[in-house]
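S.,

As promised, the iron/sulfur cluster run. Input:
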Amino acid sequence: MSDAVTLISPNSEARPVLRERGQREVFCGLTGIVWLHRKIQDAFFLVVGSRTCAHLIQSAAGVMVFAEPRFATAIMEERDLAGLVDANEELDRVVDRLLSRRPDIKLLFLVGSCPSEVIKLDLSRAAERLSTKHSPSVRVLNYSGSGIETTFTQGEDACLVAMIPEAPVASEEAPASLLVVGTLPDIVEDQFSRLFNQLGIGPVHFFPPRNSQSIPAIGPNTKFLLAQPFLGETARALTERGAQHLPALFPFGAEGTTHWLKAAADAFGIPELHFLAVVAPGRERAKRALEAQKQHLAGKSIFFFPDSQMEPSLARFLSRELDMKLIEVGTPYLNRQLLSAEMEYLPDNVTLSEGQDVDRQLDRCREAKPDLVVCGMGLANPLEMEGISTKWSIELVFSPVHGFDCAGDLAGLFARPLFRRSVLKV
Amino acid sequence: MQLTVWTYEGPPHVGAMRIATAMKGVHFVLHAPQGDTYADLLFTMIERRGARPPVTYTTFQARDLGTDTAEIFKTAARDAFERFDPDLMLVGASCTAELIQDDPGGLARALNLPVPTITLELPSYQKKENWGAAETFYQIVRGLATEAPAPKAEGAKPSCNILGATALGFRHRDDVIEITRLLNQMGIEINVAAPMGATADDIRRLPQADFNVVLYPEIADTAARWLERQYGQKAVRTIPMGFQATCEFVREVAALAGVDPEPVLAQHGSHMPWWSRSVDSNYLTGKRVFVFGDATHAMAAARVAKEELGFEVVGLGCYNREFARDVRACAAELGVEALITDDYLLVEETIAALQPELVLGTQMERHIAKRLGVPCAVISAPVHVQDFPARYAPVMGFEGANVLFDTWVHPLVMGLEEHLLTMFREDFEFNDAAGPSHLGGHAKVEAAAQPAPEPEFVPMAAQATTQETITVVNWSPEASKELSKIPFFVRGKAKRNTERYAVEQGLETISIEALYDAKSHFAR
Ligand code: SF4
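Predicted complex:
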């Protein structure tokens, strides 16, 4: 396992990537609000946008998330477009109304959208102004989730970047600490916490935190692991704060999780034998669980439409641990640096594609007749109608899929559509 | 700026998509950023459509702004035409593209495509989904239905168009089947049903019909008025929802078509009138119901609720302002104040304050009702996957009246059960926290989720004070306990009446005596 952290490979640049610039069938970054607002429990997300933006968020999860949400949209109207002064006044009024309705809110994000970007409504200045006004009870930050700048999961990346300046500065004398970056389901955080604890790595913090009052301190002795492959800007901002990135495979499957944990273990000087002893039970459990799913997946071909940027990592997992045949792995954006290890582990004959031209990609997909297609909800039923099994990609972002104890569940998400097709007689 | 948690309607271009998706051989090129492609899933997931909506999005990005967004539009339109070979192209802009003013209409004209191309002006910052659908349908009709009808052959059957059904409509699929059947029974031919299922050629043939049936005025009213002005086609405006309205519809159609309505009325075959008159339905009398939805469905539902089920309508409203005047008039007839708003929070406050025993609303109200512990049935868009049942379930026509009876009565507690609950209210397993007995699985979840339904009401009523000042009266612990023994489906009413009584009497605290005094005071 000692090769686990030598990740940068000279070959990864050489791999051909199909770049496309046509119609993209991908959500915008606003969508991240659907999970972020559940994670940070005292934060509220106010989109400054249009009726389209409001409609997107309420439709994006497939069904409406109807518990009292901690998000809303300030829908711009004709008169807001007349002048920026008025738009700012209107925004202040809306924020006042919101905060009086929700006194429990401690952190408010103003989330920019395409319309607010196009009319150049300066939300960072608005955030400063409102922060001063509502200080100290509420902090106001801003980021953009607009579709002209971000796709789907990049919204979380932008949100985390906006939060980093809120983190206290850890001094140079502070002991080494581990930061796990990226929204994880609470149960997965707990599973990882136990493992790090057993390994003897600590203190460990998760970012984003469950509560805005507990943003961990970040400094030169902070070492961080990315839990998600779409957090390139966050990684850069953390590095600028002096924190040290621990590159690794992403923690999907037994192999990815082992590799990821090993990167931390090495950075914290954990002895090899201890590491192996700690991860062995989890790794065995994961392998057993995967064995059960393998009967449905081994030898089956799979085609990924671009969606979350998790595609190359998931493809690596499916090909190496479940023997699936990769046909095309599409991703909205390929971060070559963060994914260099993943790309090394992908077979040579797979087409990697970046960006999208959805009609042409559908042509390629039909031509290849894959056993399973991973795609967004707009494409799933139409492909099913054509006789192609699909897995909605959004579920991969919403479900617990990280680590040893979710590896079987992750495989199960891919196996279920195939298994279902095999039992249905209608 | 409007602070919005949930919206009843999407932007106007989603309305345009509903028309394009409903029709055949139409393609819509929408100048829009990538995130706007979410709208596809409304059709493929909620409605379970097995084909992508016929929409090409240009998905321009920030780096394209100010350089070549117009070029991107032209490429997208040209490619879409070549790939999909439509008989009719629609072009338009979503909210973001509206701001960059690329003029999709002009760009499309410059392409000189060999098919009719209709430019949609969809002001996103003023208008909403239903308006966008109506405008799109009107522009298509105006653009294509340009030829006056050929003279009618001697002895030809009377014929009509059925207008208004779209993709993502509430039960549109089955309503059109039901109404087609009804009209055919009357000896009337359907010339064209549009937009759902219609081609560009079908739209061209619209003027051939003798008259129009406008099933969904929200969508088809503008087009029908134009057809009337242009070709003198009269429109049937009675919405055949409910038993009586269906009978009226039959008479109105018969008068226009010159046929006899009586044979069809005589053999309507609807169970609804008898189901409602049968003794079992006695317990429905005076149930307090709150009705909210699009104007057409809300008004029709209010009438059915009052006159065909014997409910008491305690509130009526709609979210589409375009039809506010009609809803106000309808509410006035019912003696209630109309609630015209698209503010979900205001609707929630109103329901909480009125404490109805049944809510007839949209998926939004279904959620509100669930939180308040009030039964609910859905009567209108916005829709949810559950509003597209696998079975045949129209809400219009005679079969539609049956469906309304079943779906509205089903969430309520049954007649005798109601009495047993009142008599033995402390039975440990047969009590109101367990919910209606015929809604088994459901009840358990709710019972677990809200072990004490009572506190739910208190904060809600308190919340309503943001709107109007309600004097809050204290409940003595004994009275509070007594109140909790009253079955849940009348508890809201009892609580409200008692508090009103206490305020009128100037009581500071409500005792058990006050509770029963109030009961006799309000006994009717
Ligand atoms: S793509 Fe832009 S306009 Fe569309 S929903 Fe996203 S932020 Fe709003």
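Chain A touches chain B through 63 residues (CB under 8 Å). Residues 1-10 of chain A have pLDDT under 50 and may be disordered.

- D.
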